[in-house]
């Protein structure tokens, strides 16, 4: 009986200690979750601007926090730049995404091709 109680106490102690462990992320996410949620919940110029600022904050502060910039941050900024009619800015952000994450190279190439096609269509209609 004493061994049974001792095993239970040891097991509970181990569970309590492991429950207190913190998980560390390789990436610095800043306020991404909250700003993305706010943007999804209520899309407006204010929430778009706040989300863009959150993304730029992630880029600016990741190194200070000894973390990496998460994949997709530059791609999301590229999308926002393209939607704001800034194809040069979008291209620069996509090139940065590709430089940080070579595995995204094919996706970036497809986006660049689509941007070039959309730009050609816009010039033809102008």
Highlighted features:
126 residues; mainly alpha; elongated
Question: What does this entry look like structurally?
Answer:
The chain has 126 residues and is mainly α. The chain has one domain (26-125): Serine Threonine Protein Phosphatase 5, Tetratricopeptide repeat, CATH 1.25.40. The chain is 72% helix and 0% strand. The radius of gyration is 22 Å and the shape is elongated. It starts with a helix and ends with a helix. The relative contact order is 0.08.
Largest sheet: none
Q: Strand-and-helix sequence, N→C?
A: HHHHHH
Q: Mean pLDDT across all residues, rounded?
A: 87
Contiguous low-pLDDT stretches (5 residues minimum) are none
Q: Which CATH architecture would you pick?
A: Alpha Horseshoe
CATH topology: Serine Threonine Protein Phosphatase 5, Tetratricopeptide repeat
Helix content: over 70%
Structural class: mainly alpha
Q: What's the domain count?
A: 1
Continuous helix count: 6
Give the terminus-to-terminus CA distance.
87 Å
Q: CATH first level: which class?
A: Mainly Alpha
Shape: elongated
What would you report as the Rg, rounded to the nearest angstrom? Answer: 22 Å
């Amino acid at each position: 009986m004493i061994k049974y109680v001792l095993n239970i106490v040891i097991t509970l102690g181990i569970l309590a200690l492991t429950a207190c462990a913190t998980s560390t992320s390789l990436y610095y996410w800043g306020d991404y979750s909250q700003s993305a949620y706010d943007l999804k919940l209520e899309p407006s110029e204010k929430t778009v601007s706040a989300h863009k600022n959150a993304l730029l904050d992630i880029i600016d502060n990741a190194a200070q926090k000894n973390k990496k910039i998460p994949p997709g941050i530059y791609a999301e900024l590229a999308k926002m730049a393209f939607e704001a009619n800034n194809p040069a800015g979008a291209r620069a952000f996509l090139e940065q995404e590709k430089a940080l994450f070579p595995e995204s190279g094919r996706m970036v190439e497809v986006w660049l091709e689509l941007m070039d096609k959309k730009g050609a269509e816009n010039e033809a209609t102008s």
